[in-house]
Design brief:
The chain is α+β, with helices and mostly antiparallel strands. It has a domain of 36 residues. The chain contains two helices and two strands. Strand 1 and strand 2 form a beta hairpin. The N and C termini lie far apart (59 Å). The relative contact order is 0.08. Keywords: Membrane, Transmembrane, Transmembrane helix.
């Protein structure tokens, strides 16, 4: 009599987890490719920051604005 085979580790990962893994890898690649510093001028200030951080901050502000503006 043979024992039932256990599913492999890869088979036990759900589709949502696969999407999370892919998005994480893409985010890391994005950060690695956008490490150069850029100057941001806002009002009378000039800030020098890595491009990925500027884009992340812009995304966060847009996401927050979307949350505040959505209808219930």
């Amino acid at each position: 009599m043979t024992e039932p085979s256990k599913p492999s580790v890869l088979a036990r990962i759900s589709p949502k987890q696969w999407v999370a893994i892919v998005l994480t890898v893409l985010a890391v690649l994005f950060i690695l490719e956008n490490r150069h510093k850029v100057d941001i001028e806002f009002l009378l200030m000039t800030i020098r920051s890595p491009m990925w951080l500027v884009l992340l901050a812009t995304f966060a502000v847009g996401w927050l604005a979307g949350l505040l503006a959505r209808r219930r």
